[in-house]
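The instructor's notes for this session suggest beginning with a concrete chain rather than abstract definitions. Hand out the sequence below and ask the class to guess, before any prediction is shown, which regions might be ordered.
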Amino acid sequence: MACALSESAIDPVPITFPARVPDVNLDDRLSSAARMFEGMITGPECIISVKGVLYTGSINGTIFKIEDGVLSKFAQLGPAGCFSMETCGRPLGLHYDETRDRILVADAYLGLFALDLSTGKPTKIFPRDGSKVTLFNALTTLPDGRIVLSESSQKFQLKELIYDFLEGRPTGRLLLIDPDSGEWKVLADNLFFANGVVLHSDGNSVLVAETGNTTIRRVPLNGGPSEVFTDQLPGMPDNLSKSPRGGYWVSLVVSRLPGKTNFYVAVAKYPWIRYLCYKFIPLRLLRSFASLNNRGLIVRIDDSGQIVESLYDPSGNIFNVADVLELDGVLWLGSYYANFVGKFVL
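After discussion, reveal the predicted structure:
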């Protein structure tokens, strides 16, 4: 597995985004979305539906469920009495494993877990050898039960993810895991902050979001070379999910739209500026810079990667949308750090 947190300085390289920012007809109706359970949860990064019940994680390692409009605790990944994300855990990706009727959780610090649907009891299933986890992020399952998991960085842990973006090097990868044997292999590497993962409709490949260079790649499951699925996105992609109306929802956590760009996008071309930021600006302040001008922005793309729908919130009521779950005419919106779950009626 990847090594532990690096103590070395970052070594930035120029970051080149696709030159053209696509023309997108922004629908600003997202500003009407409701903030559900505000103040009761922080960082519901990913939202899934299992048998009519919603599940999501939080920054303190807790998995919550939403049933009949009520938010309640379902599971805890870390030990009782833990006090930090490194020990309590930080669940990022959730996925329902239909082959075994369980919920899988990718925790950025602790590893890959399976949750019993009846009791919420967590069982760690990967890595089994006690290897240090660097930054597990999102996942999906294949029909045969194998798991595809994104490891966003092999150098920086979640608490220092801004350094990964400041450095601009592709240290992310995609892992293919057999949960029965614990065996695994690298499906794709040299990815720019590997993030959301979804099974392509052809069943023979997966899509993975490269947040660091505003691209979604298509990765064959047979080990063949990956290819760009789309780089025509108006922002940096986070999670990916299927829409029941066809295509895939893409959550865009950082905008590239004219007049709506973010600190990270602005300094991408200048490695020396990014190094000075690393050297002289406290990490806490860098994190706040990265969240500036972060309005809610999501797009739906078709099987060829073309944008067919977009929703935007210019007001900032909904911000930092990291995940979209479309269910029964409603979009449930997750976020890496917001203190609510968004709900938008289509």
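Then share the key points. Confidence is low (pLDDT under 50) at residues 1-8. Residues 271-280 form the longest helix (10 residues).
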